[in-house]
Amino acid sequence: MNSSENMKARLLDYIEAFNAADTARVTALFAGNASVEDPVGTPLKEGRSEIDAFYAYATSVGARLELMAPPRGSHGNSASISFRVHIAAQDGQPAYIDVTDVMDFDAAGKIVRMRAYWGADDYHLSAAAG
Amino acid sequence: MNSSENMKARLLDYIEAFNAADTARVTALFAGNASVEDPVGTPLKEGRSEIDAFYAYATSVGARLELMAPPRGSHGNSASISFRVHIAAQDGQPAYIDVTDVMDFDAAGKIVRMRAYWGADDYHLSAAAG
């Protein structure tokens, strides 16, 4: 079984790699047979090529993930992390999405399942700067 | 489908009812066939009587849930909430557990599945007061 500490360290790696726009470092955290459901309730991205394409795009749009609380482990092979995704709205106005990711890990310590919890109402325009 | 807004309102009800030690109000949020996995990786509490017993105990020990971030919805029938559980350690010293709950809702808006993500390393003794 994965230790809770190791899973949480991988989740922090994920945030750091994403914020560095280092697509290869992000996707290296995933197993070849992984699935990504982002947001939960939409079709899965499955397997290496779909996950690579998803993160190539996601890391290309200037999004920045702000950690909102310490990651949580479990007594199984799952861990979770909550963050705010800072983005620009279509008109360039700052916006953000509140997200919680749940990741399941395989025996090799790779992510095999990622589920991102956020709804349409978790998208907000940021307060205007003074 | 449940609206993201409704699911998030139910999660905030859960926190409020738990902090009021109102066991009946907490368990009324659950469907009769619900399962609770708390923490993830341990055996399920299943069905009305096991869930009632679990929350009768959980709300009896003086735990207080502190919301750490806004709840998150999804594009499906799931939502998540992250909080800190303030408790007393066995010797009476203040302690806390960092937890993220993921809840799945049925068509009637009741919780049918609850999974609480926290590991042994998410338990901390609180800093001593000055």
The largest contact between protein chains, plus residue counts on each side, is: A-B, 30 and 30 residues
Total helix count of chain A?
3
Mean pLDDT of chain A: 95
Order of helices and strands of chain A: HHEEHEEEEE
Secondary structure class of chain A reads: alpha+beta
Largest sheet of chain A: 7 strands, mixed
Task: Pick out the low-confidence regions of chain A.
Answer: none
Determine the CATH topology of chain A: Nuclear Transport Factor 2, Chain: A
CATH class of chain A: Alpha Beta
Strand content of chain A: 35-45%
CATH architectural name of chain A: Roll
Distance separating the two termini of chain A: 50 Å
How many extended strands of chain A? 7
Radius of gyration of chain A equals 15 Å
Shape of chain A: globular
Relative helix content of chain A: 25-40%
* Quaternary status: homodimer
Total domains of chain A: 1
What does this structure look like?
Two copies of one chain form a homodimer. In chain A, strand 1 (30-37) and strand 2 (45-46) form a beta hairpin. The longest helix of chain A has 16 residues, at 4-19. Chain A is built from three helices and seven strands, in the order H-H-E-E-H-E-E-E-E-E. Chain A is an alpha+beta fold and 130 residues long. The first copy, chain A, is 25% helix and 36% strand. Chain A has one domain (4-125): Nuclear Transport Factor 2, Chain: A (Roll). Chain A has helices at residues 4-19, 23-27, 47-58, and strands at residues 30-37, 45-46, 64-67, 78-88, 94-105, 111-117, 123-125. Chain A binds chain B through residues 4-5, 8, 39-42, 68-70, 72-80, 82, 98-100, 102, 117-122, and chain B through 4-5, 8, 39-42, 68-70, 72-80, 82, 98-100, 102, 117-122.
